[in-house]
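#structure-requests
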Amino acid sequence: MTLSPSEISDLKRAKTFLENPGLAAKVGNFVGTPIETMLKKLPETVIATVNDVTQKSIEKALDVALFTIDKNERGVSSNWWHKFAVGATGVTGGLFGLPGLAIELPVSTTIMLRSIADIARSEGENLHSTDAKLQCLQVLALGGTSKNDNGTEVGYFAARTALAKAISEAAAHVTKKGLSQHGAPAIVRLISQIASRFSIVVSEKAAAQAVPIVGAIGGAVINTLFIDHFQDMGRGHFIVRRLERQHGQVEIRQIYDSL
């Protein structure tokens, strides 16, 4: 079975989203300084704080994904509303800098996840399925590409493969036992793997917000770029999954690689 011209166009669009430069490039252009330079200036204590806040944000996002995400019944993704909401939370980060991250990140992550779910639904995902909900959460582990070789920059299909087992085990656990055991190994592994990748992008955001001149308006812009990045990742991911449901994973992977 071959793809139609419109499906090829969709797959090209997905690959553009998934394999193009990620958040660091966009934020670096906004603040006028390479993110890598700002990251080197962050103290180790700040990095540890970012990792801790990221972990807690993913745990909160998991609850949102599994318990509330299917209560939103809109059929078309509402990207602009979510961008506005996340931009508003960025004011906190801009005003208070790094100390505001612990307050702002769990909120912005939750809003982003709802936006990703809207996108998933618009691409035909059944969000009553535990696997589909966890696929929304997985988008937070997709970083795009950059000049640096780090945990988020291994390519879309490599990132999916790395998380596939953890997603499958977590879905099986939730289906059988629900989320009553947050400390269950399957849940812990999934949160840890997603958080380790998401924290790299969060560190880039935090480094930008640490620039003294950013302020409230700059914080709102950085957060808007933040959600825009993950909306692109979500759109690309769920376009690929839609085409895989129609034509099979092997064929879509082969065509994706050839584009």
